[in-house]
Amino acid sequence: MNLDVRSLRTFSRLAHSGAEKAAGSLTTLAGIDTYVNVTKVELGTKSDVESEFAERDLVSVHIGFSGGLDGHTVLAFSPESAERLVDALMPGIDATDADGELAESSLKEVANIMLGGFIDGWADYLDTTVDITTPTYVDDENDGPLDHVDAEGFENGGDDEHVLVFRNQLEAADNAIEFDLYMVPTASSIGTIVEASGDDGALPVESFAAFSEMINDGANQASEDITAMTGIDTTVEVSRLSFVPIEGVPMSLTDAVRRGVVLEFSGTPSGYIAILFDEPSAENIASSLLPGMEGDEAMRQSAIQEIGNITTSGFLDGWANALETTIDISPPKHVHDIGSAIIDPLATDLAQSQEYAFLIDSTIRTDDDEFTCDIYALPDETELRKALRKLSPAA
Description:
GO molecular function, one term: hydrolase activity
Protein name: CheY-P phosphatase CheX
CATH topology of the largest domain: Chemotaxis protein chec
GO biological process, one term: chemotaxis
Keywords: Chemotaxis, Hydrolase
Pfam families: CheC (PF04509), CheX (PF13690)
CATH architecture of the largest domain: 3-Layer(aba) Sandwich
Mean pLDDT: 82
Number of helices: 10
Strand content: 25-35%
Structural class: alpha+beta
């Protein structure tokens, strides 16, 4: 299976177009104005995909597809969003009481129409026929996008096999309902789409998988450095590589206030990196480094800059070693704002030369949630492609 920017753009546009059709279907069915917030193409292992899904309390409907394209789709809601949607579709029906079967049936019908329209767009692009399965309703948060997939096409490599996940975040205009639409095609189906996109410069997926492993290794090193610096045990919760329209990068972050540092890195690859803490985490980590200095804001800001600098070095040094190159890092700039506002100028700068961005997203946290550290890296597309070529098995 080969991938490159052109095929990823095709994937992203098809996924976004399909999600817009799904949103339009919901608007027609429930009278709720719905729009697509952001579309991501995420590369990860099967176990990563499932573990992230399992951490969320979700109500979901699963539909498989086969024919000219094979794989699986999931429409996933929080319980609150599912109840609001059922109420909009069937006023007076309580999804939690004896009418639960009616609520379940209602959600399955919505998913059947929305996901069916989503898949039709891919079938039209490939000029093929795709059949979908009967919807399966799931109210167990441990059932993820791959749990109900026929093993064929996903069995090689086990839980460490890399898969592409197309993830669309949708929400109602009044924010009352939020949900995710997942699509996971089989490896052979991805190859079919890549071939249709006419990308003769594609790289083996192993190049992207190797880069994904570099991200994991960098996040683990950053976690160890934070632990060494603060004396607080930390672990990497999630680390992933996403392909996102450049304007969608700020929307990948919440509007919660964050504090941390932003740095620029140059070499192969080059780009920007942000080390962000929520406000309680920033206070906790500053206190662990400077006990008794709660009243000295300048010193606490300096401490956050220093740990941001150390974390960035740990995160990027492994990349430089694996690529046998040098990556230089700028001095850390302290930031304190809502997350989307911090990332927006970085994405705006990259937007001068590229339409899409590879977004690297890693989360490091303590077991007791004493603090959480989010790492967001935005490599320059041209430089990243050079790095990926170095990681190609044929290089």
